[in-house]
Amino acid sequence: MSATGIGAAVRRKEDFRFITGQGQYTDDVVRPGETRAVFVRSPHAHANIKSIDVSAAKAMPGVIDVLTGAQLATDKIGNLICGWMIHSKDGTPMKMAPHPALAASKVNCVGDAVAVVIAETVGQGKDAAEKVKVEYEVLSAVVDPAKAQAKGAPQIHPDIANNTIYQWHLGDAKATEAAFANAKHVTKLDIVNNRLVPNAMEPRAALAEYDAGTDNLTLWNTSQNPHVARLVIAAFVGMAPEHKLRVIAPDVGGGFGSKIFIYPEEVVCLWAARKLRRPVKWTSDRSEAFLTDAHGRDHITHAELALDGNGKILALRAKTIANLGAYMSTFSSSVPTYLYATLLSGQYDIPQIYCEVDAVYTNTAPVDAYRGAGRPEATFVVERLVEVAARQLNLEPAELRRRNFVKSFPHQTPVIMAYDAGDYNASMKKAMEMADVKGFAKRKREAARHGKLRGLGFSAYIEACGIAPSQAVGSLGAGVGLWESAEVRVNPTGSVEVLTGCHAHGQGHETTFAQLVSERLGIPFDSVSIVHGDTDKVQFGMGTYGSRSGAVGMSAIVKALDKIEAKAKKVAAFMLEAAEGDIEFKDGKFTVAGTDKSAAFGEVALNAYIAHKFTGAELEPGLKETSFYDPTNFTFPAGCHICEIEIDIETGKSEIVNWTAVDDFGTVINPMIVEGQVHGGIAQGVGQALMEGAVYSAEGQLVSGSFMDYTMPRAHDLPSFHVGLTETKAPSNPLGIKGCGEAGAIASPAAVINAITDAIGTEELAMPATANAVWAALQRATPRQAA
Amino acid sequence: MYNFTFHRPTTVRQAAGLLARNPDAKLLAGGHSLIPVMKQRLASPAALVDLGLVEGIVGVELKGRSVSIGAMTRHADVANSPVLKEVMPALASVPGSIGDPQVRNRGTIGGSIANNDPNADYPAACLGLGATIITNKRRIAADDFFTGMFSTALEEGEIIVRVSFPVAKKAGYEKFKHPASGFALVGVFVSKRGPDIRVAVTGAGANGVFRVPSFEEALKKRFSPKSIEGLTIPASGMNADIHASAEYRAHLVGVLARRALVKATA
Amino acid sequence: MPAVSMTVNGKAVSGDVEARTLLVQFLRENLRLTGTHVGCDTSQCGACVIHVDGIAAKSCTLLALQCEGAKITTIEGLAAADGPLHPMQEAFREHHGLQCGYCTPGMIMSALDIVRRRGNDLDEHTIREQLDGNICRCTGYHNIVKAIAAGAKEMGKGGTTQQAAE
Predict the structure, then answer these.
(1) Is C141 in the A-facing interface, judged by CB distances under 8 Å?
(2) Which CATH architecture has domain A18-139+202-253+259-292?
(3) Same structural domain, C133 and C92
């Protein structure tokens, strides 16, 4: 392994600008004549708009204009869409209600934008926004998805009965039913997967500029996928044709899914910038972000696991209600369906699985993909069921898992996925050793002497990443293909730019992608630049989410590098006056087999451009290749996390005393970055399990609407993590990469809750397991444990 | 935030004069409660009178059997005061637990007490030690000062100048942090100074900081955690929110009082 | 509009601002020092931490006018333009103490304040407790904690030891 090649913990190229304060995030970009947008938002969760009077606001100092939804409609700006079609079990298509960027007649959640003030400064904009008079007819609201389906619930969108978007299912209901009928033991759980607010540290922002001379629009945007944003804004919103719209996603301060989606604010900024002939910038306040960023999770599930007398799992069934909020966000429909139910087999050989999912509108912020997206919900169902079943059957949780692990590959689950490689016992075994599971009983006794309860929780998760084979997702309803593109541009001096359709917002692509290119071409790491995040530079791409950039994005680079090598060999053949078939390429050098004739990569690059050694008829000059890589399967990262927790009996406060993660991500390009991804994912999962929860009042007000009430994990809430790796290569891509971005968030909630319930001796514990919640659970538990 | 006029007096007298001339003015001390509220447009003073340059209201001094703390003394400076750490570390631990380090670098005792946030730490220390709040006009006993959430005995134009804490031989503060905000979900300050025994609770009560007579009575026999074992306070009148039920807060009052007593009697 | 002047990163600066202008707005908008970030509106996240007269503060909770005459240091002022990185900056890079980079300037400025108060030999528990005012959503803090411990130690070696005030 070279110091900068695949497998090396190379320090990141991108860090210099960030540690010196020279990052360029959207809000840092300033355009001449820039104005500021301030949105007027509904304070009500559900109301008809009777009238909007903007006259007083327009007269305020510094105000350029105040625009409303009525004008948006007049200008024929289209609605936002959800791009994944789900059909109900009766064959009817999902019911997608219109989502205008500015509500004109009705608001459906607190924070719904009804008007926008364009002013010289944010302060002036805010002063004026208060002067916009909106007359509302307040309607009763519903925030609980189960209640939203009930008779007599407030009707959120016209003609959508019971506020139900779809009633979907997957698996064989009858066969599952039969398996349950034959079971010796059935474990049942009612689970709420709590609603989360993504809270990337950089709030969303958009800056739009219109060039009247060329009729071109440019949007700087906090986006994980600028090309998808351009496609949706062009083709569905109808703002401008694709070739007249440039989307730039510069440095982006974290995404976690929340910056995949196309939001009203960027549409409004583009529209206003063209209308007013001035650049328009909007930067979200954190309070605004709480109300308007797409939230995550929010499932209510009843789940059951059927086992025989030997602890062999026979079947699993689940009925889930998924809260999608007031509108269907960009990919929201896919999250509780194909990203969720397809993973309900976990790491286990489960003969029958049946899952039903109802997706429901409520008067809350839209819900969409958040780190893990569907897979954390599935893992929580499976790993809680398995853990509880083991406890009920008096089996070691590890033993029950071992008995049921998938052991041979490929393995077709009953829920679409075909697992292609893995060694689940290897991860669990290593994790158990690292976590010193053998010594746990002793540690538990010691803790008890200090008035503390100790618990141990496992989570053996699996995820489907490398999203995704286009044909497969197309057959499941996706509106787009999920391949990735790469363009490798070799300069005459031998340095290389790689244009990728992936987008980095913390993942370190500028480093890992360069490691791949540097190793493959045998050129210095510093001679490689990675270009991303600008639709004028990169032709097309699908962006970064779903742990796809390694498995799909880097595979596209590999394919393009294959083409570069092939063409360079042709050039080298002319240079070295040899047959193309005799040219070999290794360590940055082209040689003629069996001779000492050679040319360095840089020399070949120069010759490709000066083209002195060949004619255009023989070979086109230049050295630049493009590839579109479409994966043949999902990848299946898997592993085992073990959480050891200590609980203060008197206060119910939990402290994670040890965390072990052993993951199989296939090939690892940069272990330092991979471990960092695991750490961050665990923190988010621990956040979900112990402290985070978006809470709405019955009237639809977001009670946890700031960092004063929504508990973010802080340094002192977490331990240092013990992270290990096992490796089975992903057979479906040339590098054998499985992906690592979401694993921590997927694995960890179940590990935490399994640990706490182990400690307190009751399974009745919802997330977030706050100190109050654990204390209350202890009060309900046996008197022996309740202090 | 709404705009305002900004004044920087250098004496308490000037500050008082500015308050008198600007009826909608507010005093700006550390600003770590006021500025966030103004940013949310929940407060809209027409003028701010910044006490940052006012002389003579900063510092921690031992005066006889009392510790006197200037109103503009930052939390970090109180927490790290060598004098205070020596004579009454329990009081030093109170600002040491407020907010986070950056907040402690700016926030002041006067600002905290004048604001009387129901989850703030200092009110528990004031009430739990029987402090005297000294203003430009008078001296107010802590027992009379805190009159309900965000409400105090301060009158228009009255400026806190110093706070005087009697030195208690035995004192302790125990806080259960609000997991999100860092304020006190519940905080209990206990002290014993001769026959004067005090148990003051912040964070828990719907009306702000309060004393617990039943605990104080029980502690008169013996100032020890054992004396209040098994004692609780009723959940009625406790705050309830998404972070803690009234029952849980009431329970924590007992737990934290015992833990504070462990510290106080260590 | 009132005038304000202060020293930022060793340079005298001044400007006319509305009284309601926050220090962070003055730094970002008037001086175009955009390394200082805004991540919340409740003084919680610490993305905006800078030093006022050598002491860490949240620039989102200070009025520019309160800083009249003060010496402000921002992330841009830690290392000279063509000089070496500050040891704490270097430690964040070496230990992968950042991912998206948004919280990083505030983290580094807070880390320096921890060193000021607690010295160069910092244990994990101290660092975690003292990072209470800074939120990171990417790293799980693991590598930030490592970076701060290493950076603090390096500052001690390099003679940039600062007297621990606490």
Answers:
(1) yes
(2) Alpha-Beta Complex (3.90)
(3) yes
Residues of chain A with CATH 3.90.1170.50: 18-139+202-253+259-292
For chain A, residues classed under CATH 3.30.365.10 are 142-194+295-407, 420-460+635-787, 483-629
Are C92 and A506 inside 8 Å of each other by CB? Answer: no
Q: Which stretches of A624-758 are assigned E, i.e. beta strand?
A: 624-629, 638-648, 654-664, 722-726
Contacts of A707 in chain B (CB under 8 A): 180-181
Q: Which domain holds residue C108?
A: 87-157
DSSP B208: S
Contact assignment for A703 to B1 by CB distance below 8 Å: no
Q: Within 10 A of B221 (CB to CB), how many other CB atoms are there?
A: 8
The chains in contact with chain C, meaning 3 or more Cβ pairs closer than 8 Å, are A, B
Distance CA C156, CA A295 (A): 44
Average pLDDT score, chain A = 97
Mean pLDDT for the stretch of residues A495-502: 96
Q: Is the ipTM of this complex over 0.90?
A: yes
- Residue pLDDT, tens place only, A632-678: 999 999 999 999 999 999 999 999 999 999 999 999 999 999 999 99
Residue of C nearest to B6 (CA): C19
CATH code: domain A483-629 is 3.30.365.10
- Structural domain count, chain C: 2
Distance CA A753, CA A425 (A): 22
B245 at A interface, C-beta within 8 A: yes
Q: Please give the C-alpha separations between residue A375 and each of A278, A297, A337, A659, C96, in angstroms, as whole numbers.
A: 43, 10, 10, 21, 27
Clarify whether residues C71 and C119 are in a common domain: no
- Distance, in Å, from the CA atom of A185 to the CA atom of A196, rounded to the nearest integer, reads 34
In whole angstroms, give the CA distance from residue A63 to residue B132: 50
Q: Assess A393–B contact: CB distance below 8 Å, yes or no.
A: no
Last residue of a domain, one of C77, C109, C131: C77
pLDDT digits (tens, 9 = 90+) for A38-87: 999 999 999 999 999 999 999 999 999 999 999 999 999 999 999 999 99
Residues of chain B with pLDDT under 50: none
Please judge whether A776 and B3 are an interchain contact, meaning their C-beta atoms are less than 8 angstroms apart.
no
What domains lie within chain B, and their CATH numbers? Answer: 5-50 (3.30.43.10), 60-264 (3.30.465.10)
Distance CA A593, CA A613 (A): 20
Which of B249, B251, B259 to substitute to test the interface with A, most A CBs within 10 Å?
B251
C80 confidence band (pLDDT: 50, 70, 90): confident
